Amino acid sequence: SSRQSPQDLPCGHAIHAHCFRKLAGFDYRCPICKKTVVSASSMSATWGARARDIELQPMPTDLARTVTIICNDCERRSDNRQWHFLGVQCPGCSSFNTALDDATPPTIE
């Protein structure tokens, strides 16, 4: 039972307001569920820039592989996504807030 004011996040979790301000300085995700806590319109420029960076820097063929991801934002599971060290974009919501699905080993092409 804290006396500090809470900050309600869009995902439904709450965090101390001062902790949220600190978190916002280095991360855009809820520390509990990893959903993006910044508005989609705010992140669209970031995701667009990331997609352009990936296009400009293709993976070398010896490192190319496909992976299965789970999107932390829309919770969609997507198979056969091209892995890139800058991130893997969700085909459902266009977010790069994704994680590799450990249940499926990567396929090296």
TrEMBL record:
Cross-referenced Gene3D superfamilies? 2.20.28.10, Zinc/RING finger domain, C3HC4 (zinc finger)
Domain RING-type, residue spans: 3-34
* Residue span, RCHY1 zinc-ribbon domain: 43-98
Hey, what's the signal peptide range on this chain?
none
Q: Which domain of life is it from?
A: Eukaryota
Q: Name one GO molecular function term.
A: ubiquitin protein ligase activity
- Coiled coil regions in record: none
Fetch the InterPro entries from UniProt: RCHY1_zinc-ribbon, Znf_RING, Znf_RING/FYVE/PHD
* Name this polypeptide is given: Uncharacterized protein
Q: Which organism is it from?
A: Proboscia inermis
